[in-house]
Write a structure and sequence with these properties.
Radius of gyration of chain B: 20 Å
Oligomer: heterodimer
Radius of gyration of chain A: 14 Å
Largest sheet of chain A: 2 strands, antiparallel
CATH superfamily of the largest domain in chain B: Thiamin diphosphate (ThDP)-binding fold, Pyr/PP domains
CATH class of the largest domain in chain B: Alpha Beta
Number of domains of chain B: 2
Structural class of chain A: alpha+beta
Helix content of chain B: 25-40%
Helix content of chain A: 25-40%
Shape of chain B: globular
Strand order of the largest sheet of chain B: 2-1-3-4-6-5-8-7
Structural class of chain B: alpha/beta
Number of domains of chain A: 1
Number of helices of chain B: 12
Number of strands of chain B: 8
Strand content of chain B: 15-25%
Strand content of chain A: 15-25%
Shape of chain A: globular
Number of strands of chain A: 4
Chain lengths: 105, 305
């Protein structure tokens, strides 16, 4: 239930420093056609078990570290519910932070 | 574990949408939204001034695009998108006029307008989303429905030969003809960008799934299954003879840019003819009116837009 709530209330999913890109999902617009899940070149997404208010299963991010920010999910999405973008942080800094995170984890 | 490293920019399509009208009415798995993404991408790529852009739609599922885009858009009567667009273009030659409609609207009820606009070579960009059926009215057989397909008006399968739209518009005189499917998003966006840089009648056909009517009745699965079919069965052949790119029920889909040629467009021919016949007595309509906003973008008049 908590996981469901989190997915429904947070429109932004998958904020990880190790990734080159990030995906944002507007859950309430999704009609669960599955285009983004199928055609993501790095297989970042999967349809979640949570429902949105129309009863569809919106996608969620399963491998955020793989996201390249190519926005192919956004190009395919017929409902304008998802988009990817490249992270703007400088490369060196990002990797340093990623290492830090890994050490902590 | 997680850190926000940069602010999240908005969806690139969002500035072109009337967000208050979302979610839209298109079915889950319908490809029309995908074509709108490609159109928005092309608008960004071509850096077109949105003040010089007008989008005209007819009636049908694809006709709804005019109501969902935050552009100067025009939702016209059934089949008459091209006549309205022709009027817009002739009255204000500086406008970039896009006709965004479906196969039933453009090739069936508006079939005559399509071929005559192509014959006259009016400077329009026509995006035809072809779902091979009349979708909004309940899945009746359309002129584009391929043979043996089951529809609500042909429960034993269609037997009429169907239109091959690229062949039709090429024969009628279009200067740019391309076909893509909703699977080919990047190629479609590039094609629309190319059409914006082309003067004359450009026609881009986009094959799109209609999971609710066409795919369901023909037992072809949902929208995703259809997209996988497009991925598997489509073959890119640039410059392929359009007579050989007809669609079949389960066969190969030839995609690509088929025609890219130059012919003088309607307004060029009109001016040439008038100058030849009337000489100095003929004053160019746009010169007299001073379409500064369209020609060089330097117009400051409020009444202009």
């Amino acid at each position: 239930m908590l996981a469901n709530l989190r997915e429904l209330t947070l429109p932004l999913v998958g904020v990880f420093v190790a990734a080159k890109g990030r995906v944002s999902i507007v859950v309430e617009r999704c009609k669960a056609c599955g285009f983004c899940v199928e055609f993501c070149p790095t297989k970042v997404l999967a349809l979640s078990s949570a429902f949105n208010s129309k009863g569809y299963h919106p996608p969620h991010v399963v491998s955020p570290e793989k996201c390249s920010g190519c926005d192919l999910c956004g190009m395919y999405c017929p409902d304008f519910a998802i988009y990817g973008h490249k992270l703007q942080a400088p490369k060196a800094e990002a990797t340093a932070e990623a290492k830090e995170v890994n050490n902590e984890g | 574990m997680t850190t926000l490293v940069s602010p999240i920019p908005g969806n690139p399509v969002e500035p072109f949408l009337r967000s208050d009208r979302m979610p839209h009415i298109w079915c889950p798995g319908c490809g029309i939204g995908t074509t709108v993404n490609c159109f928005a991408e092309a608008l960004i790529e071509s850096k077109i001034d949105l003040k010089t852009l007008a989008l005209v739609s007819g009636i049908g599922c694809t006709g709804r695009v005019a109501g969902y885009v935050k552009l100067d858009s025009f939702h016209t009567t059934h089949g008459r998108a091209i006549p309205f667009a022709t009027g817009l273009k002739l009255a204000n030659p500086g406008l970039n006029v896009v006709v965004y409609s479906g196969d039933g609207d453009l090739s069936a009820i508006g079939g005559n307008h399509l071929i005559h606009a192509a014959r006259r070579n009016i400077d329009l960009k026509v995006i035809c989303v072809n779902n091979l059926i009349y979708a909004m009215t309940g899945g009746q057989t359309a002129p584009t429905t391929p043979g043996h397909a089951t529809t609500s008006t042909s429960p034993y399968g269609t037997f009429e030969p169907s239109f091959n739209l690229p062949h039709l518009v090429e024969a009628a005189g279009a200067v740019y003809v391309a076909r893509w499917t909703t699977f080919h998003v990047r190629q479609l966006a590039r094609s629309i960008t190319e059409a914006f840089n082309k003067k004359g009648f450009s026609f881009i056909e986009v094959i799109s799934p209609c999971p609710t009517l066409y795919q369901r009745r023909n037992k072809m699965g949902d929208g995703l299954e259809t997209m996988k079919y497009y991925k598997e069965k489509s073959k890119t052949k640039h410059g392929a003879p359009t007579s050989e790119v007809g669609l079949t029920l389960n066969g190969e889909i030839i995609v690509g840019k088929f025609v890219d040629r130059d012919r003088p467009d309607y307004s060029t021919l009109l001016k040439a003819q008038m100058h030849e016949s009337l000489g100095d007595k003929y004053v160019d309509y746009d010169e007299e009116q001073g379409y500064a906003c369209s020609a060089d973008g330097g117009c400051e008049e409020d009444s202009c837009h």
